[in-house]
Q: What sequence folds into this?
C-alpha cells in the first residue's frame, strides 16, 4: 500500500508540477500571479477536443493545433490586456488575470456547455506496468512524468543558455534596466505568456484524459500547481517540479493513512509550516529587498 | 487647495462644507430608502452593505498595509458561524453575539497574522488561501454547527423587537455599516493608520523608524478579520441559512476583486467596489433580456456558441468590466472619481 | 325596509363570497399563470441546469396544447449560478417584481434552503425541487411539495438490493462530503443497522478533489465487494478510472443523480458497463406514450438539447404541479391548489407514482434499478458503442 500511494502520489504530482512550471514561467519574468493559467489551459484542451471530434483530425494534428492555439492565446492575452494596463501595480495585474479567467471560463462554457465530455488520448491510463509488489503505474502516468521532467530540463536549459532565456531573467530583475540594455521587454513578456500557456496546455491534455473535460477542469489543478510552485520557491523550475511531487506524495500518504477528508487541507498546512521555516520556498534564494 | 496646513486638518473627519452637506444628504437618502423601495431592492442593498463592511476590512489589510489575503471567506464564515453558535448554543442576544463573533474572527486574524510576519506576495497568498479552505473543511466536520448540512439562522431579536423583514434587517445593517466605515476612516488617520501605510510602502524602512512590525501586522490582520467577521454575522441573517459551501474560495476572490476594482487604500473606493461587484453579480444574469443586446447575443449563440450556454455571457462581461477598469485606472473606481472631480474643479474654464 | 336590508345583506354576502372566490391571486389571470424557476445555468453545478430548461420545453408543449384550463403558462427561468445569495435575490425578484404565482423545481440544497423561509412566509406554492434532501418535506410545510425520492430511501433500496439480490457481504460507501452525499450515507447505514451488518468502509470525497488514488486504496484495503457511489459524475468517472488502473473491481452501484447512463458511459470510456444504478424517471429510450411525446417536444422546441435524464426530469418534476393546477380548476388560490394537490394518489407521469395527502408532502418514495449494458448504434456509417440502461426491477418501495 505504501508503495502504491507514493507511486500514485508522484503520478498526480507530475500534473501539479506541469501547472507549477506554467505559473513559474510567468512569475519569473513579471512577478504576476496568473489566475487565468488554468482556464487558458482548459480552453486549449477544448480546442483540442473540438479538432479531434468535430473536425476529425488525428491526434498529432489536433494536439499540434491546440498547442499553437495555446501559444497564440497566451501571447494575445499579454499583448491585448496586461500590456495595456496603465501604471500597473502587482495587485492590479493579478486582478486583470482574474478577470481574464472569468472571461475564458465564460467563453468555454458558452461554446461547449456544461456537460462533461470524454477527452480522447492516445495513451491509455488502464495499461499498467507492475513495479513489483503489486505496485502499478500506467502508461499515461509514465508519459505525464516524462513530459514534466522533459519540460523542466528544456526550460532550465532555455533559461540558462539561450539569449532569450537570459533576457527573460533580466526582465524580471529590473524591467527598466533590461529595456536600457536593448531588450524588447514587451516581446519578451508576450513570449513568456505564450510559453507558459503552452506548458499549461500540455498539463490540461494530460489531466483531461484521466478526468472529464468540462469548464471546471483546471480550477483545482491550478490551485495545486500554484501551491507546488510556492513550495518550490516560485522562481525555481526544479523547485516547481519537486514541489509538485512533494505535494502529491504528502496528499496521498495522508489520504491513505489518516483521513481522505482533510487530504487537500493538510497539503496547505504542510506548505505553511515549510514556509514558516523557509519563507521563500524550498529552492529559491531569499532576497532581502533594499529599502 | 489640497494643501494641509496643520495636523488637525489632516485628521478631521470632514474636509469642507460641501462634504458636510453631501454626508447629510447621503444619510437622509439612506434613511428614506426602505420606505421607498421594495423588499427585493432592500435585500440587494443589504447584501451591498455587508460587502462594503468586508471590503473595508480587506482594504485595511490589502490597500493600507500591503498584505494580500485570499482567505477572507474564512473570516466571513467564522463570523457567521460564531454569531449563530453564540446565539443558539449560549443563548446570547444578537447585539452581544455579533461583536463577540467579530472578536472571535479577529482572534483567528491575529493567528493568521503570525505566519504573515515572515511571508509576502505569493507565499502569503497561498498561506491565506489554505486558511480559507481549512476553515470551511473544519466547519463541515463540526456537527454541533450543522456540519455539511448547514445551519438555519434563529429569529433576530433586538430588545424584544423581532426583525423578520428586509427593511428591518436594513435598519440593523446600515447603521452598523456606516459606523464601521466611519471607524475605519478614523483609524486610517491615526498613528496606527500611518503605521500601516508605512509598512505597505516598505516594511524594513517602517521598522527602522520605530514601527513595531509584529504588533502592527498582526493588528492589521485582526482588525481586518473583525470587520469581515461582523459582515459574516450579518450575512447569516440576511441569507437565513449558511453552510460551509456558502464560503468557498470564489467568495474570497470576489472580496479581493471588490477592493482592487474599487481602489486600494481608500474608504470610498471600498464602498464603490463592493456596490459595483455585488450589483454585477446579481444583475448581470439578466443580460440576455436587455433590448438590442439580448437578441444579438441569442443570435450569436445560435451561430457560433450554444443557446443553453448563453447565460455564461455574464462571466465574459463581468471579467471584461474588471479588466477594463484596472487597465484604464490602476486606482480603480476611486481613481475615476478623483479624476472626474479634478476635471470639473475648474469648470467652466 | 326589511326587504332592502335583506337585499343589502345578500349583496354583501355575495360580495364577500365573491372576494373570497375570485380574490385576485398573484400571478394568475384568466389567460395566464406565471411560474418561475431558478437553476444553475453557469458555474460548477451548471450540469444540472438542464432541469430548468426541460421545464421550459414542457411548458411550451402545454401551451401549444392550449394551456391548463385555458390558461397559458408564462415561464421565468433565472440563473443563480448555485450561489445562495443570488437564489434569494431571484426568489424576491420573481415574487415581488414579476408577480409570479409559484415556483417550480430549483436545483441545489444550499440555494433552496436560503429561499425556503421566504417561500413559507409568503405562502408561495413550490413543487418539485430537484434534490432528494429531506429538508423540504420534513417537517411538513403547507405549500411545499417534494417530488424527488429522498436520498436515504434510495440508498436503503440500493443497499438491500446489493445484499439480497446480488448476495454481497461487504458494502462500502463512496460519497461527496456534503449534504447530498451524507443523505445517501445515512440511508445505507440505516439499512445495514437493520440487518445487523457493518459498513466495510465509508470514503468521502471533497468537491474540488481530482486525485482519488488514496480513496481507491481505502476501498481496496477494506475488501468491499460492492461500492455505492453518491458523488458528482466527474468523481464517479475518476473513481472508476483509478480503480480500474489499480486493479480493484467490485460491483459498482450508483445513485439516481448518476443515472444519465449514456453520458456516464461516455465519460468513463466504457467503464460504466455493469453499473447498477437507481432511477427516479423512465430510461431515455423508454417507449411509453408520455416519453415519446416529450421526446418529440424536445426535438421540436429545443432540438439542440441532449435527451438526457436531467433534461426530461425537468418535465417530470413539474407534472404533479400541472396536474394539481388542472384539478384546482379556475380558482388557483393557494389553499385551493394545496387541496387539489392533496388529492393526488398514485399519480404517474414519467416518474414513480406520486401521492400527496394532508400529512404527506413527499411525492415519490420509489425508485427502480437498472444496469448499464453497452449497445451499438450506427452514426454516419460508423459503429458507435454507447451506454444503455437495462431495467432490472419495477418501481421499488421501502417496506
A:
Amino acid at each position: 500500500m505504501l508503495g502504491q500511494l507514493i507511486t500514485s502520489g508522484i503520478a498526480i504530482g507530475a500534473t501539479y508540477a506541469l501547472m507549477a512550471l506554467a505559473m513559474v514561467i510567468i512569475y519569473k519574468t513579471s512577478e504576476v500571479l496568473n489566475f487565468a493559467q488554468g482556464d487558458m489551459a482548459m480552453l486549449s484542451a477544448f480546442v483540442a477536443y473540438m479538432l479531434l471530434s468535430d473536425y476529425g483530425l488525428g491526434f498529432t494534428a489536433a494536439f499540434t493545433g491546440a498547442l499553437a492555439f495555446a501559444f497564440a492565446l497566451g501571447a494575445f492575452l499579454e499583448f491585448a490586456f496586461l500590456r495595456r494596463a496603465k501604471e500597473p501595480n502587482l495587485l492590479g495585474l493579478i486582478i486583470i488575470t482574474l478577470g481574464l479567467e472569468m472571461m475564458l471560463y465564460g467563453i468555454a462554457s458558452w461554446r461547449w456547455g456544461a456537460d462533461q465530455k470524454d477527452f480522447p488520448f492516445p495513451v491509455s491510463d488502464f495499461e499498467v506496468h507492475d513495479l513489483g509488489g503489486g505496485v502499478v503505474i500506467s502508461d499515461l502516468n509514465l508519459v505525464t512524468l516524462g513530459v514534466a521532467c522533459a519540460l523542466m530540463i528544456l526550460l532550465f536549459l532555455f533559461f540558462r543558455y539561450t539569449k532569450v532565456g537570459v533576457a527573460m531573467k533580466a526582465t524580471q530583475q529590473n524591467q527598466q534596466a533590461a529595456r536600457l540594455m536593448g531588450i524588447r521587454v514587451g516581446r519578451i513578456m508576450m513570449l513568456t505568456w505564450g510559453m507558459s500557456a503552452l506548458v499549461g496546455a500540455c498539463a490540461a491534455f494530460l489531466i483531461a484524459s484521466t478526468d472529464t473535460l468540462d469548464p471546471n477542469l483546471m480550477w483545482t489543478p491550478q490551485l495545486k500547481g500554484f501551491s507546488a510552485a510556492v513550495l518550490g520557491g516560485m522562481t525555481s523550475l526544479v523547485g516547481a517540479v519537486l514541489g509538485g511531487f512533494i505535494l502529491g506524495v504528502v496528499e496521498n500518504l495522508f489520504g491513505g493513512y489518516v483521513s481522505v477528508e482533510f487530504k487537500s487541507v493538510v497539503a496547505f498546512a504542510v506548505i505553511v509550516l515549510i514556509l514558516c521555516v523557509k519563507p521563500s520556498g524550498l529552492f529559491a534564494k531569499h532576497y532581502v529587498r533594499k529599502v | 487647495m489640497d494643501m494641509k496646513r496643520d495636523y488637525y486638518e489632516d485628521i478631521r473627519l470632514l474636509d469642507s462644507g460641501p462634504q458636510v452637506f453631501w454626508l447629510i444628504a447621503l444619510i437622509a437618502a439612506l434613511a428614506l430608502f426602505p420606505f421607498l423601495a421594495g423588499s427585493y431592492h432592500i435585500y440587494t442593498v443589504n447584501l451591498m452593505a455587508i460587502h462594503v463592511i468586508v471590503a473595508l476590512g480587506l482594504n485595511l489589510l490589502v490597500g493600507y498595509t500591503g498584505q494580500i489575503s485570499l482567505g477572507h471567506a474564512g473570516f466571513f464564515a467564522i463570523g457567521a458561524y460564531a454569531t449563530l453558535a453564540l446565539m443558539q448554543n449560549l443563548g446570547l442576544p444578537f447585539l452581544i453575539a455579533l461583536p463577540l463573533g467579530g472578536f472571535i474572527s479577529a482572534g483567528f486574524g491575529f493567528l493568521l497574522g503570525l505566519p504573515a510576519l515572515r511571508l509576502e506576495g505569493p507565499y502569503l497568498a497561498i498561506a491565506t488561501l489554505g486558511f480559507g479552505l481549512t476553515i470551511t473543511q473544519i466547519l463541515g466536520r463540526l456537527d454541533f454547527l450543522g456540519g455539511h448540512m448547514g445551519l438555519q439562522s434563529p429569529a433576530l431579536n433586538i430588545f424584544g423587537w423581532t426583525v423578520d423583514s428586509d427593511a428591518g434587517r436594513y435598519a440593523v445593517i446600515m447603521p452598523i455599516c456606516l459606523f464601521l466605515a466611519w471607524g475605519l476612516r478614523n483609524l486610517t488617520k491615526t498613528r496606527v493608520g500611518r503605521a500601516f501605510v508605512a509598512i505597505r510602502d516598505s516594511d524594513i524602512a517602517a521598522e527602522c523608524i520605530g514601527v513595531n512590525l509584529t504588533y502592527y501586522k498582526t493588528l492589521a490582520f485582526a482588525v481586518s478579520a473583525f470587520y469581515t467577521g461582523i459582515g459574516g454575522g450579518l450575512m447569516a441573517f440576511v441569507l437565513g441559512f449558511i453552510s460551509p459551501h456558502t464560503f468557498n474560495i470564489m467568495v474570497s476572490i470576489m472580496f479581493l476583486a471588490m477592493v482592487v476594482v474599487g481602489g486600494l487604500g481608500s474608504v470610498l473606493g471600498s464602498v464603490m467596489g463592493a456596490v459595483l461587484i455585488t450589483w454585477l453579480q446579481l444583475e448581470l444574469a439578466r443580460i440576455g433580456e436587455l433590448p438590442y443586446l439580448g437578441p444579438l447575443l441569442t443570435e450569436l449563440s445560435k451561430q457560433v456558441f450554444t443557446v443553453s450556454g448563453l447565460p455564461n455571457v455574464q462571466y465574459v462581461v463581468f471579467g471584461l468590466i474588471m479588466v477594463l477598469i484596472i487597465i484604464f485606472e490602476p486606482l480603480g473606481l476611486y481613481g475615476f472619481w478623483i479624476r472626474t472631480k479634478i476635471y470639473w474643479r475648474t469648470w467652466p474654464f | 325596509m326589511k326587504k332592502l336590508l335583506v337585499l343589502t345583506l345578500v349583496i354583501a354576502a355575495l360580495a364577500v363570497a365573491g372576494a373570497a372566490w375570485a380574490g385576485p391571486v398573484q400571478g394568475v389571470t384568466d389567460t395566464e399563470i406565471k411560474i418561475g424557476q431558478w437553476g444553475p445555468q453557469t458555474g460548477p453545478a451548471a450540469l444540472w441546469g438542464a432541469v430548468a430548461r426541460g421545464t421550459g420545453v414542457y411548458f411550451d408543449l402545454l401551451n401549444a396544447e392550449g394551456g391548463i384550463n385555458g390558461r397559458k403558462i408564462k415561464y421565468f427561468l433565472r440563473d443563480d449560478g448555485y450561489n445562495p445569495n443570488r437564489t434569494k435575490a431571484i426568489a424576491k425578484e420573481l415574487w415581488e417584481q414579476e408577480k409570479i404565482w409559484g415556483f417550480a423545481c430549483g436545483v441545489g440544497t444550499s440555494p433552496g434552503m436560503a429561499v425556503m423561509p421566504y417561500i413559507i412566509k409568503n405562502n408561495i406554492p413550490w413543487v418539485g425541487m430537484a434534490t432528494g434532501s429531506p429538508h423540504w418535506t420534513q417537517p411538513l410545510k403547507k405549500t411545499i411539495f417534494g417530488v424527488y425520492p429522498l436520498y436515504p430511501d434510495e440508498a436503503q433500496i440500493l443497499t438491500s438490493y446489493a445484499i439480497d439480490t446480488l448476495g454481497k457481504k461487504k458494502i462500502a460507501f463512496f460519497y461527496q462530503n456534503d449534504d447530498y452525499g451524507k443523505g445517501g450515507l445515512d440511508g445505507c447505514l440505516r439499512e445495514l443497522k437493520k440487518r445487523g451488518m457493518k459498513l466495510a468502509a465509508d470514503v468521502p470525497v471533497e468537491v474540488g478533489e481530482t486525485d482519488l488514488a488514496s480513496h481507491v486504496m481505502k476501498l481496496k484495503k477494506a475488501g468491499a465487494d460492492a461500492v455505492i457511489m453518491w458523488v458528482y459524475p466527474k468523481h464517479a468517472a475518476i473513481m472508476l478510472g483509478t480503480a480500474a488502473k489499480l486493479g480493484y473491481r467490485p460491483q459498482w452501484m450508483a445513485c439516481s443523480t448518476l443515472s444519465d447512463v449514456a453520458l456516464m458511459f461516455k465519460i468513463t470510456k466504457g467503464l460504466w458497463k455493469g453499473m447498477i444504478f437507481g432511477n427516479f424517471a423512465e430510461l431515455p429510450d423508454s417507449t411509453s406514450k408520455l416519453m415519446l411525446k416529450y421526446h418529440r417536444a424536445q426535438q421540436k422546441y429545443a432540438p439542440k438539447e441532449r435527451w438526457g435524464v436531467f433534461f426530461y426530469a425537468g418535465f417530470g418534476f413539474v407534472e404533479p404541479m400541472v396536474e394539481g393546477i388542472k384539478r384546482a380548476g379556475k380558482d388557483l388560490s393557494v389553499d385551493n391548489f394545496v387541496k387539489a394537490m392533496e388529492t393526488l394518489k398514485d399519480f404517474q407521469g414519467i416518474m414513480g407514482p406520486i401521492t400527496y395527502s394532508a400529512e404527506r408532502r413527499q411525492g415519490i418514495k420509489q425508485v427502480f434499478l437498472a444496469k448499464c449494458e453497452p449497445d451499438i448504434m450506427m452514426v454516419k456509417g460508423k459503429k458507435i458503442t454507447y451506454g444503455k440502461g437495462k431495467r432490472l426491477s419495477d418501481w421499488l418501495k421501502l417496506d
